Amino acid sequence: QVQLVESGGGLVQAGGSLRLSCAASGNSFSIYALGWYRQAPGEEHELVAAISSSGNTYYAVSVKGRFTISRDDAKNTLYLQMNSLKPEDTAMYYCAIPGSPDPWGQGTQVTVSS
Length: 114
What we know:
Elements: E1 2-7, E2 10-13, E3 18-26, E4 34-39, E5 46-51, E6 57-59, E7 67-72, E8 77-82, E9 91-96, E10 108-113
Parallel strand pairs: 2-10
Antiparallel strand pairs: 1-3, 3-8, 4-5, 4-9, 5-6, 7-8, 9-10
């Protein structure tokens, strides 16, 4: 079982950047596909970006070209580099294994001011 802990959120002005990290504990981190999700108030969780065990990536249309997902299997860590942030990116961000039945972690808050 893999446990995931998010960090790196904060308050930033529109156009700014943040890098989120997701530290994993447990075994076999490298074999899992991983994703970054976000949830704005009153909204459902949305898949923002995902990366396979081999490094193939997926991005939601709303973030493509601005966000970059990456992983460092030696450090058991997942990253999300977020550039050109917009107020509509404001949300709680979570990392998770796509399709996992495990509950969401505590997340990290990203707030983008206009």
